[in-house]
Amino acid sequence: MLVQEYLDKHMLSWRIEDAVNATVRAKTPDPILFIITYHALFGAAALFGEEVVAVWWRKVRKMSREGLGGAADGGG
């Protein structure tokens, strides 16, 4: 399979661009963690429903703004 076919089949270009744009909008101090979590939450939406994921997403955005220390010590 050619690279472009693979990218198109899995919509990777769009997904990566979307995650990067969300990361820039969030101005997160840990962009890689944010991107990984962003994709994980969208995958979870299919399993748990969008309402549950929306709550998780708000927590992730809050943690990304405060840094991981706030969540680890019970602040998240």
UniProtKB/TrEMBL annotation:
- Which top-level group of life is the source organism from? Eukaryota
List the transmembrane segments.
32-57
Keywords, ordered alphabetically = Membrane, Transmembrane, Transmembrane helix
What's the protein called, per UniProt? Uncharacterized protein
Gene source species: Rubroshorea leprosula
- What is the phylogenetic placement of the source species in the record? Eukaryota, Viridiplantae, Streptophyta, Embryophyta, Tracheophyta
